[in-house]
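Task: fold both queries, return tokens.
Query 1:
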Amino acid sequence: MKWIRTISAEVEETAETLGGKAHGLVLLHRLGLRVPAGFVVTTGACRAFLREGRRPDGLDDELAAAVTGLERATGRAFGGPHRPLAVSVRSGAGVSMPGMMSTILNLGLTTGATEGLAAETGDRPFALNSRLRFLSSFASAVTNADVDGAAAAQAGDAADTAAAMKAVEDLVRERCDRPVPDDVTRQLEWAVEAVFSSWDTPRARTYRTLNAIPHDLGTAVIVQQMVFGNRDARSGTGVAFSRDPNTGGNVPYGEVLFGHQGEDVVSGRSATRPLGELAEREPDVWAELLEALRRIEAHYRDACYVEFTFEAGELWILQVRPGRFVGGAAVRVATELVDEQVIERHEALLRVSPQHLRHVRTPRIAPSQETDVLARGLGACPGVAVGRVATTAEGAVRMARDAPVVLVRPETSPNDMHGLAAATGIVTARGGPASHAAVVARAMGKPAVVGVSGLTVDAGSGCVTVGGRTVGEGTLVTIDGTSGEVALGTPRVVANAADEHLHRLLAWADDVSGDHSARDEAQRLDAAHAALRHR
């Protein structure tokens, strides 16, 4: 049995074998978009690893051959002292599990390869920063701990970077009883094992249980040439929706982070900028991104989502999937795609579920001078949540046994999954629309507010401070995932009225079912679905 496939336009296998991420990369190749060269270790290899407790027979030889092919495709040497090849090692299950499994960046930057990268670029701080990022992501993957070594690299001080690298390497040696290998083959083999193993971490199992995802699917592992968003001032990373996921409006939406790598967007530790700033800073990258979104949306005949990095002014697409909008955004996209003659009315009706209708009339905190607004951030998932403040994931689980809680954190990570699952709403001091907290909140349909400027969380004392005011754990708050408001107590809540898009969709539903009597909205849509299924 072959365990590895080169990612190319010719690959024919399904997402069940390749994983959703690699399957999307195959699509990007077919659409003629710029994608880093790479290969995928199939989900079958993960299942064999989990079953047998070791890498399956033949995988090591296939990894060696795949790396040789990647060296040939890129003109670089894996771990070499001249033109070194560094790779990302990412998870990619057949179903989306955002942020639940491990990713390692810059793998292959051994001490010798790091010196080679410094010589090639003439930028030693960049090379050391990239080595530290490798060590931090590798340590996080093999220890299942949140390792933030990259924070020390922001200042660019060589002594601080060297100290941070040593601290991370010491952590791995202490937790794993072996050092971080300085041999690229051993690095890659251990990284693949770590990604396989992350399928069975408590956070991943919790997510699958909450979303009724089978536990026996396994994850693929994608290995790709690194694109360095932290290379220089003309480099960066970001995420983009072809349409606004909050409203469904036909305008690109997302965020960008200049001079950083992708994990800085996801972690929320760095302040992102609105996607539109890319048009001002890098107009050629912006134009190419818009064209990529146009091609992908034309293929899906639906809104889409991409992750991208640009290095020295050159754009690379790293991931793609359909937009998966909910609530009013899903209704608006479906009706406007009919207007654009992309889909027919019958398909628009089938794309909207009764579950979507339950979220169309989004609750909001009512405007009032009596509302005691504690803080404002960015609304990351629409809706209103009321609960008592919890400042740790463990505290959220404990307190949620008695009453609803709102988890308030500086930022969240996959290791907070149990707390996110227990909470009714989420607030973070840092991060934007693509941060871990925002992505998980949208996946779980929980109201969230992120990027609350000036918010500090003292988990030790159980206190939250913002705007000169301090509230303790257990304080009752209400959050508005649309406006980004965090209010004390329980202010009055109102719901949006039905808009023209919903009225039009339901009129189509009545035409299909032939029933124009007065019924609730879900019944009208259900009747149309039933009629369409029997055609």
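Query 1 returned. Query 2:
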Amino acid sequence: MTLCTPARKSTHHKNTRPRGQRPHGPPGGPRRFRVAGADLSASVAVFLIALPLSLGIALATGAPLQSGLVAAAVGGIVAGRFGGSPLQVSGPAAGLTVVTAELIQRYGWRTTCAITVLAGLAQLGLSVLRVARSALAVSPAIVHGMLAGIGVTIALAQLHIVLGGTPQSSAVDNVLGLPAQLADIHPSSLAISALTVTVLLSWPKLPGRAGRLARRVPAALVAVAGATAAAVVAGLSVPRVDLPSWTSHALPGLPEGPVLGIAAGVLTITLVTSVQSLLSAVAVDKLVAARADRSRSVPRSNLDRELAGQGAANVVSGALGGLPVAGVAVRSVANVSAGAVSRTSTMLHGLWIVLAALLLVPALDLIPLAALAALVMVVGIQMVSITHIRTVTRHREVVVYAVTTAGVVLVGILEGVALGIAVAIAVALHRLARTRISREERDGNPLLHVRGQLTFLAVPRLSRALHQLPQGSHVVVELDGSFMDHAAYETLSEWTTGHIAHGGTVETTGPSGTRIAEPAPAAASDSTAPTCCRPWTPWHNHQCGEPPADGPTAPEEGPERPESDEPRRASGLHLASGIGKFQRNTAPLVRDELARLAREGQRPSQLFLTCADSRLVTSMITSSGPGDLFTVRNVGNLVPLPGEESGDDSVAAAIEYAVDVLQVASITVCGHSGCGAMQALLGSAPDDPAVPQTPLRRWLRHGRPSLERMASRRHAWARISGRLPADAVEQLCLTNVVQQLEHLRAYESVARRLDEGSLTLHGVYFHVGEAQAYLLSGTDEVHSYDDVFTQVMPTDPEEADPGETEAGETEAGKADLRGTDLRKAEVRETARAS
């Protein structure tokens, strides 16, 4: 199989696939909007969480309270409809509280709305450039540190409201002003806040069956509703929500302020909303994959589309006077946990927000501001996740996390993220340049441990350690790293050569002690050298360090039966090892091509129908790569006739899909030597009611037309150019390829494309023992002359002379046909006896 991306040649047939249809999906009919019950219940659960949070975040930013409801509604409807993550819920996010509050304080609310619109346009531009995956390249320690810094800033600001005061403009000022605030506590606000926090933290821990039923109601809603009811019943005089009339709702205006400051605001909103939304989308995919109920499949997130959906939502939200919109992890987790199965739940939650904003204004005006502040304060504290701290500590990135968090709290979001990136780069360079070299004795011989990456920076210490080893000794050099540059390689190679010249020996091993050996030039040309670990070596020959066991070769016509079951027991280990080698060696080479195919869908040029025999590796014998072949494999490479009794729909469906949907340009039927299905056909008895009809027997009925064709005198005799078939099995294998091509022509879609001239049929016969392919000529029309398979020569098709094959066939055919009649009679007698 070619590991590089194959160069695609332009095809001359016209692609008739509809413009709006995805290349990897079947054509769809008219769709009707339906609401699943799971989506309806999930939308209500998310709405009950989003309503108080939206008001609390708007309060924390200092924006009009309606702006939180606008952002929640727009995030649900617009981002839910056009986003690429079906189950992600978008709206005003706590992570945007600090930057939004700063923009409002500096430029005013109308200019902040305009900045939100510009940030949405920037997100749309980034989605066009398809850079969504690049945003995930930021170190998780930086992202978690940024969110932790924002959480600390939110908690410090809301603590002043909880105590009955007013927050300051920065986290430092809030810390400095805290003693004075503690000296002037408002008991009513503190009591409401304490009740809110108590209910919020204790509600998820209610025990028993009754508690399990009660926990279905979101804790945030219960906490705010309970605090509101307590304030109303007790008649407490506390500041409450004051939603002005929608007719006086403030809309955006033209940006006013310094250009650089506004540009920095746009960049900050774009950065925070994009990164948070994309990380949340990835987290939602993980939650969906881990969900126990998989009766309804949910597609994975399309991050570029999600970025575009978030951009559109920010444009609409800013234009309507709403807060910036981003994907919110809390609401998204609630949506998935509630059993949502489509984007309908997200859109319905936005609709409920709209209805609440229009119909529930009197009830919302009763909510104490202290309850909302306590709710947002708890959310801010929870953003400093202990799990995240443990994770970055385990990966030795706690310094990056701490610097980013401190920078966001003390300086600002952009400055804190920049500091985190600088520290992350410094840590990465330190790890790259750090190499630990140690020496010990093992069995009386020196052992040199080299841990870390070997670069030119480590060459002086490596050279010093190598030359301190005793001459003439057996030295083991253990390399525990994934990278060695040219300078380190030259140093190690030159020392190895000199050490061996002085009578010593050198053994280079990996971290697990496995030997790293390079084949000597002589061994490369030695025909007796072991073939272990070469490409396409079967698993039972993969005995590293030992040559494959010599033994008689199994006959090609029959299946190989090992004398021991040990290879079968080890097959699972071989499979895991093979997958691991693919991930290490092949995946990096094909990842870009597979990513392109994942984005654009499959567009194979050919349907390749072949046998399920394990000796046929289609990508190897065709030198094809990912996305080239649409492959169908079955026992005997059979194509059941359409409409035939007990026909097989899977093959017919694959043909229809390849011809009508994928619009392949050609179909190839590939048979092979020693086919077990053809042997079974030759040895099968006529249908006997007493003989049980197993699935294999019923399937092989589709091969009887090939057997009848070989026995008939009314059909041409399929053969290989230049020689006679080796036996009846090979004759039937060749005839079967021709017969299955005739079955293909019986399919309506294939016949139509053949008449249009946009589809061609090909037949191939692969001789396993010779590793030789033979191509059937003249398969584009029904012909009456002999069906001849011509040997495929190992030359570039563009350099081959078409006349050479034709002339060679003529001369070989004259000598070949002298014994044809006798051979035909012998084979046909065998077929009739079967």
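Both queries returned. Flag for query 2: The chain has a mean pLDDT of 78.
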